[in-house]
Design goal:
- This protein has 296 residues and is mainly alpha-helical.
- The chain folds into 2 domains: 98 residues, Tyrosine recombinase, N-terminal domain (DNA polymerase, domain 1); 176 residues, Intergrase catalytic core (hpI Integrase, Chain A, Orthogonal Bundle), CATH 1.10.443.
- 59% of the residues lie in helices and 4% in strands.
- It is built from 13 helices and 3 strands, in the order αααααααβββαααααα.
- A 3-stranded antiparallel beta sheet has the order 1-2-3.
- It is globular and about 60 Å long.
C-alpha cells in the first residue's frame, strides 16, 4: 500500500471510528507528516511494507540529533505504534517494524503547580471595570482550578451541565466519558453572577463560556488567556491551563484527599496517571522536614 494512502486511512480511522480528540488527531497528523517525507527522501520508500525497524531507528536518531526531547520522541513512537498496529489489523502489513525499536529513556518530569499561599491572589482578577470579559476570564480560572478539568472539557461545558441546586457539574472527558464533579459554594456563587452577566449581554449560546462576541470559546483562546494571567503572576516557565489542573490535584493530595478520589475527579483511566502527583507531595514533605528538623 502507498504510504500516503495508508496515512489517510489511519487519520480517518482516528477521526471517525476511534473518535480521538482533535488535539490527538492533529498531533498524529504532524508526526506522520514528519516521518513519511523522511522515509521518502532518505530511503526512497513509497510503500508501507518496505518500512523496516532500521528506517524508524534512523528517523529517531535524526530527531535526537536535532535536539528533540526524549519525551517528544516517545510520543512519536506511540503514534507509529498505533499506526502500524492498525494496518496489521487490516492486513496491509504482516510484521510490525516498531516492535524492535527501543524508546529513549526520559527523566521523570514533575507536574508544575502554583503554591497554595499564592493561589487566591492569582484567581482574584482585578479590573477597574466589572465588565463581562473580566467575569468570563475569572470564570475560566476558577473552573480550571476548582474542578481540575482539561482545557477541551472546559470549552465543551454547556450551561445545562451546571447543577447549582445539587452543587455539581457534568463534564464530558476523553472518549466521551462523562463524570460528575462537585463544586464548592465559592464557585457556585461566581457561576450565578456570571450567568446573570451573560444574560444581560443577551448571549444565548448553549456553552457556559463564550467570547466577547457571544460565541463559543476556542481552546486556543483559553490557552492565551491563562498564559497571559500566569505571566502576570508567576515566573513559572510552563504557563498553560494544565498548570491549574496540576495545581488542583496537588493541593487536593496535600490536604489528604484519597488518590482514587483524585483519579475519578481528574477523569484518569488508570491510577498510574494520578500517582505522579504523589512525587510533588513527597517533595513538599522533604522540604518541610528539612526546614523543621533540628539537624536540617
Amino acid at each position: 500500500m502507498n504510504i500516503e494512502t495508508a496515512q489517510t486511512i489511519y487519520i480517518d480511522y482516528l477521526k471517525f471510528e476511534k473518535k480521538a480528540s482533535p488535539h490527538t488527531v492533529a498531533a498524529y497528523e504532524t508526526d506522520l507528516g514528519q516521518f513519511f517525507p523522511f522515509v521518502k527522501a532518505d530511503f526512497d520508500i513509497e510503500n508501507l511494507e518496505e518500512i523496516s525497524h532500521q528506517v524508524i531507528r534512523s528517523w529517531l536518531v535524526q530527531l535526537m540529533g536535532d535536539g528533540i526531547s526524549p519525551r517528544s520522541v516517545n510520543r512519536k513512537i506511540t503514534c507509529l505504534q498505533s499506526f502500524f498496529k492498525y494496518h496489521i489489523r487490516l492486513g496491509n502489513i504482516i510484521q510490525n517494524p516498531i516492535q524492535k525499536v527501543q524508546r529513549p529513556k526520559q527523566g521523570k518530569k514533575l507536574p508544575v503547580f502554583i503554591d497554595e499561599q499564592n493561589i487566591n491572589d492569582f484567581l482574584n482578577i482585578k479590573s477597574e471595570e466589572n465588565d463581562f470579559a473580566t467575569q468570563r476570564d475569572q470564570m475560566i480560572l476558577l473552573l480550571l482550578y476548582h474542578c481540575g478539568i482539561r482545557r477541551a472539557e472546559l470549552v465543551g461545558l454547556k450551561a445545562a451541565d451546571v447543577d447549582l441546586l445539587r452543587g455539581q457539574i457534568k463534564v464530558l472527558g476523553k472518549r466521551n466519558k462523562e463524570r460528575i464533579i462537585p463544586i464548592l459554594k465559592e464557585l457556585q456563587e461566581a457561576i450565578k453572577e456570571y450567568i446573570i452577566a451573560k444574560k444581560e449581554k443577551s448571549y444565548d449560546n448553549a456553552e457556559l463560556l463564550c467570547s466577547d462576541k457571544g460565541v463559543a470559546l476556542s481552546t486556543g483562546m483559553v490557552y492565551t488567556k491563562v498564559k497571559f494571567f500566569l505571566s502576570q503572576f508567576t515566573t513559572l516557565q510552563k504557563r498553560s491551563p494544565h498548570v491549574l489542573r496540576h495545581t488542583f490535584a496537588t493541593h487536593m493530595l496535600n490536604h489528604g484527599a484519597d488518590l482514587n478520589a483524585i483519579k475519578e475527579l481528574l477523569g484518569h483511566a488508570n491510577l498510574a496517571a494520578t500517582q505522579v502527583y504523589t512525587h510533588n507531595s513527597f517533595e513538599r514533605l522533604k522540604l518541610q522536614h528539612k526546614q523543621a528538623h533540628p539537624k536540617g
